[in-house]
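Sat 14:20. Reprocessing the chain from the morning session after the first attempt stalled halfway. Input below, unchanged.
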Amino acid sequence: MFNISNEPNIVIVVLDTSIKDNIATSIAHVHSFNNPLKKMLHYAINITSTEAKLFVLKCGINQTVQITDSFCIIIITDALHVAENIFDLSIHLYQLQTITMFKEL
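Finished this time. C-alpha cells:
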C-alpha cells in the first residue's frame, strides 16, 4: 500500500462501520498521493449492518469519482460479504444500491 500511495492517480478509500445500541456509525477516509482528501462520518438509527456498510461504500465511491485525473480506486473495508453482495446481481434486496454505484463508476 505504501508503494501505490505515492501514485498521484490512485485513490485509496478506507471504510468502517459499527453498530452499537441500534445506532450505526460509518466513516470513510479518502486519500490520494499520501494526502487525506476527505473524511466522512455518518450516523443512522434503526438500520442493519449491511445497509450501513452499503451506504458508506456508496458515499466513498461517490466522493472518489469526483476526483479528477484518478484512474484507479482501491477500497479497503472489513465488509467482504457486503462487497460480494453488491456485485451479485442475483440478489434483489440491494439492487437499487448496486445500480447507483455502477452508475457512478
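Residues 30 and 63 are 8 Å apart (CA to CA).
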